[in-house]
């Protein structure tokens, strides 16, 4: 057999007989009721996996392991260089604490199907909060700590939660981020009224509690009775996770229970090659999809040990932090974003710090969140001497669209490619008319034939029509990924760029349209545009162009400073919006479309062509001049 044959046979079977394929994989999960239908296509294009089945995701993540010999195995290792704390929880301890927390949540009147917002830093209580909601059949929505109050308020209004679980603060190197005032402000801004908050007090910045609304976490848990697992339908939502849309209104990606559990169990074994009982580390944040799938649910469903790391790749305390964690906890694999490795490479290009640590247990490094740039991958390959696997996925998909399935059959790594499609993914490269491009290696829109495999999103929260319009309408019968790329003669996929206004900043997804909305709300600004410019460390960073209203007569730096602050206040520090320039006008086509693509090429010093439809070519000279002054457009 040739290399890749095992993968190809499996992938082929997942497409030719998806129901048999996924029914087989579903044996890894404990169900309280079997399914009536593996794939319910009766409401296509809204497909449902394991229709009629029931299970509880928390039971699959905790209780069953306690019952079957893993009670004393560490389930979660908390490693926090920013607080100098480490703590390990066995499966039994985690199950017991989650059951009590579920009791405290239920005491507040939360039942199956109710929404709960979780706004927490990287502490074990964040994972417990997710699992406790799952235990009750409640639907959690985790909001990343780097978002501002306004973003939190938007999410509160969209999912109308009964309860918010939070902590008094998060800890960023050199600064304590007080979460509670942000939450109070968000509650004030939101139309939906929050009856109850449970607040985990951290000594670094204890929060004042609002009488009659806020409860102290420890007190609420101490007073609660443990709760058992409530079976839910496989097709019921486990969580909602908001991601950038094209406007200020984020998209509420819905994740179901059954298909997700099956996909995660499969991927832990065959994509990540991790065995139950082994130690796995995903250095993301619980606020992102990667954190949901591979800090919380995936490793626990699989019976592995998950590491929860509250720190950075560099500066906590140095660029050897990742090696220290891998070696100390004997992790067999790490999943992070290329940006983290660029940060390490910048600080310690020769990998001197690695020499202090024993990484003998370490087998594979997985990178995702942005394209794995070849120089970073090559550097990591040389340094670590293990396979470096770039894999591609999205908040919407819940797990990888493409990857190198090292647990099934390692395939050669090709630099710049995220390898081959995951089971159930029938990927095509489409031209502008939506027809598959026959020529291998030609770039087009990456789209997947419906149905998507289990674990992917069945819809957007309360927005079936938006789901259809945003993802299914452009190419009937396909899911539009929003990414462009190509597939080579060996079936390897390369993802090149987004086709919309989404940019990728340090592995975090941001919408330039959303930043533009904030800039446009400033009193001085008549018009604006935001593009993503290349950044050595973060991949891309947002860059703003402002056209001021006639008659605005104040120092330009003041306006720029204010819009930068406005983005931080409205979207949050995660937007990393630091630079804007003032220009006399924006380059547009004759029909009024802003030429963001050309502006980006100019900013990055890439070759560009004068668009035939440009209204006034001089506008591009003005932009180029401004960019050069700001240190961009180097090669012109
Ligand atoms: N709460 C509050 N603020 C937060 C935050 C949180 N949870 N997380 C980040 N921020 C803030 C940061 O402090 C920073 O603020 P600043 O502008 O005042 O410095 C800003 O948001 C941007 O954060 P980030 O993009 O994380 O930049 P950084 O300089 O702190 O760290 C990296 C850079 C590369 C080390 C970091 O982005 C990283 O580790 N990325 C990897 C992500 C990942 O692994 N993803 C998994 C795959 S998707
Ligand atoms: P998010 O939903 O935040 O996970 O962002 C998803 C987007 O990140 C994708 O649509 C891609 O644009 C980008 N992305 C994620 N992983 C990769 C990868 N391995 N290669 C290229 N782009 C990636």
Automatic annotation (TrEMBL):
Gene3D superfamilies: 3.30.300.30, N-terminal domain of ligase-like
Molecular function terms from GO: propionate-CoA ligase activity
Acetyl-coenzyme A synthetase N-terminal domain mapped to chain residues: 7-61
Residue ranges annotated for the AMP-dependent synthetase/ligase domain, each copy included: 64-448
GO cellular component: intracellular organelle lumen
Xref: CDD domains: PrpE (cd05967)
InterPro entries in UniProt: ACAS_N, AMP-bd_C, AMP-bd_C_sf, AMP-binding_CS, AMP-dep_synth/lig_dom, ANL_N_sf
Domain AMP-binding enzyme C-terminal: 514-593
SUPFAM superfamilies: Acetyl-CoA synthetase-like (SSF56801)
PROSITE patterns: AMP_BINDING (PS00455)
UniProt cross-references to Pfam families, sorted A to Z: ACAS_N (PF16177), AMP-binding (PF00501), AMP-binding_C (PF13193)
Stated family: Belongs to the ATP-dependent AMP-binding enzyme family.
Name of protein: Propionyl-CoA synthetase
């Amino acid at each position: 057999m040739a290399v890749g044959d095992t993968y190809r046979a499996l992938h082929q079977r997942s497409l030719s007989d998806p129901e048999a394929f996924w029914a087989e994989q579903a044996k890894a999960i404990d169900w309280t009721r079997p399914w009536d239908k593996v794939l319910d296509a009766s409401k296509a294009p809204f497909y449902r996996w394991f229709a009629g089945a029931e299970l509880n995701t928390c039971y699959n993540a905790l209780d069953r392991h306690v019952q079957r010999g893993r009670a004393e195995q560490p389930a979660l290792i908390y490693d926090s260089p920013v607080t100098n704390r480490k703590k390990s929880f066995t499966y039994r301890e985690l199950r017991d604490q989650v059951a009590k927390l579920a009791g405290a949540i239920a005491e507040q009147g939360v039942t199956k199907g109710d929404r709960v917002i979780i706004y927490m830093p990287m502490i074990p209580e964040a994972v417990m909060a997710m699992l406790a909601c799952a235990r009750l059949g409640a639907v959690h929505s985790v909001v990343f700590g780097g978002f501002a109050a306004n973003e939190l308020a938007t999410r509160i209004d969209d999912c109308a939660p009964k309860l918010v679980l939070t902590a008094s603060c998060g800890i960023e190197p050199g600064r304590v981020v007080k979460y509670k005032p942000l939450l109070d402000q968000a509650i004030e801004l939101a139309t939906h009224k929050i009856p109850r908050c449970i607040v985990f007090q951290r000594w670094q910045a204890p929060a004042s509690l609002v009488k009659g609304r806020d409860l102290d976490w420890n007190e609420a848990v101490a007073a609660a009775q443990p709760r058992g697992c409530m079976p839910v339908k496989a097709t019921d939502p486990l969580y909602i996770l908001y991601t950038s849309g094209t406007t200020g209104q984020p998209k509420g990606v819905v994740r179901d229970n059954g298909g997700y559990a099956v996909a995660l169990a499969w991927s832990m074994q065959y994509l990540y090659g991790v065995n139950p009982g082994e130690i796995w580390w995903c250095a993301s944040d619980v606020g992102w999809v990667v954190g949901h799938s591979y800090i919380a649910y995936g490793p626990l469903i699989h019976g592995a040990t998950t590491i929860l790391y509250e720190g950075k790749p560099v500066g906590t305390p140095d660029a050897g932090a990742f090696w220290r964690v891998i070696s100390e906890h004997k992790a067999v694999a790490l999943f992070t974003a290329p940006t983290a490795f660029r940060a390490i490479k910048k600080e310690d290009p020769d990998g001197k710090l690695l020499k202090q640590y024993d990484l003998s247990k370490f087998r594979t490094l997985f990178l995702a969140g942005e394209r794995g740039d070849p120089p970073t991958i090559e550097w990591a390959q040389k340094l670590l001497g293990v396979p470096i696997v770039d894999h591609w996925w999205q908040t919407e998909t819940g797990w990888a669209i493409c990857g190198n399935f090292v647990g099934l059959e390692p395939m050669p790594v090709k630099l710049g490619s995220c390898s081959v499609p995951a089971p159930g993914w029938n990927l095509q490269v489409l031209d502008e008319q939506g027809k598959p491009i026959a020529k291998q290696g030609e770039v087009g829109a990456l789209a997947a034939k419906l149905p998507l495999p289990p674990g992917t999103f069945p819809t957007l929260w309360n927005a079936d029509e938006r789901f259809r319009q945003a993802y299914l309408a452009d190419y009937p019968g396909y899911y539009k990924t929003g990414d462009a790329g190509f597939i080579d003669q060996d079936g390897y996929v390369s993802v090149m760029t987004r086709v919309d206004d989404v940019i990728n900043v340090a592995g975090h997804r941001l919408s330039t349209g959303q930043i533009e909305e904030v800039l446009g709300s400033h009193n001085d600004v008549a018009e604006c545009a935001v593009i993503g410019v290349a950044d050595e460390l973060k991949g891309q960073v947002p860059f703003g162009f402002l056209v001021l209203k006639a008659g605005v007569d104040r120092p330009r730096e003041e306006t720029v400073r204010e819009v930068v602050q406005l983005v931080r206040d409205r979207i949050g520090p995660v937007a990393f919006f630091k630079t804007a320039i003032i220009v006399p006008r924006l380059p547009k086509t004759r029909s009024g479309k802003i030429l963001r693509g050309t502006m980006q090429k100019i900013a990055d010093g890439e070759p560009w062509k004068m668009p035939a439809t440009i209204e006034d070519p001089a506008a591009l000279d003005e932009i180029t001049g401004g960019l050069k002054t700001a240190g961009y457009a180097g090669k012109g």
